[in-house]
Model the fold of this input.
Amino acid sequence: MSSIKNISGEKNKEHIEVTVRNISKRFGVVNALTNISAEFGKGKLTTLLGPSGCGKTTLLRIIAGFENPDNGDVFIEDRNVIETPPNKRGVSIIFQNYALFPHMSVFENIAYGLRVKKFNENEIKDRVNRVAKWVQLTETELKRYPNQLSGGQQQRVAVAMAIVTEPKVLLLDEPLSNLDAKIKEYLRDEIRRLQLRVGITAIYVTHDQAEATAISDEIIILNKGHIEQKGTPEDLYFRPINKWVADFMGKANFLRAEIKDVNGKKVTVSIEDKLFDFELNYNPYFKPGEKCEALIRPEAVKLKRTGDGRFVGVIKKVTFLCGLAEYVVALGESVELIVKDALASPAEIIPIGSSVGVDLLTENIQIFRE
Done:
């Protein structure tokens, strides 16, 4: 694959583009952010993910310069910009409502930032046309006004406006939240494609786990103004640091368990009176006899129509999810498991009331203290 280059054609270098150190922010009695420190890699797309009110948009606005922290610093390319106004930081931001100028044509919207920076007309025309091709806006669309465009087209205009001035950092504040599901999925992939092509550093805010895992190099999960965990989408889903992250990152089964043996990272755990041996990705510091909870993702539960498995269960509920079947399986009277199973045909759906064998993939089990 060819190397990623920025708009001006220079080769992208791998290092940290943005650093925030010890950022805190209060709004009245509310601690929006408490001592936040994080690094954002150059040329990477990092998502700030978390529930409403967790502080993710506040952190983005502090990086952009639209909000001043009570404490802490923001570095862009090793330069402390905490006293630098937004228009001097070398960042561009895309808001939820796209912030397009309704009285300007699409061409003039995209050209606006270049005109403010006093580029000559030939350079403006060249840059606008080049970026328009990247975001797949036609010559006809460049002549239209924002109210003549679909939501998806407006989003492309907003992206073009943001990158045409060649910012060091692109900030995106829930840019897809107002779109329907199908166009949202298409445009998130377009944003990722363009970000990789341009090689720009992007910081993306969303509360949507599926959106974050689909496009991110790294994800920072915030909760109540604190960072819970940072890592790749795969790490956060399969190796969450605590139960809150595990539950936030998708559907999960939590079963009461007991530690039977510990040998370094290798543990033996009793789950519903069945013994499971597996190795954790961290040193658990558990002791034999200690109570815990076992995390088993729905994809890590395997059903067998023949009934032979570590457990025997009964199908209580079936939900069809476009190529997937989601089951609720009862193990006895008090334990239920959520199970997801890929389907090749409708005939593979297991009917409600069926008795099934149930196995757990031990490589996907994680344990947490109660």
Summary: Residues 258 and 291 are 5 Å apart (CA to CA). Residues 1-13 have pLDDT under 50 and may be disordered. The radius of gyration is 25 Å. The chain has two domains: 16-244, 251-369.
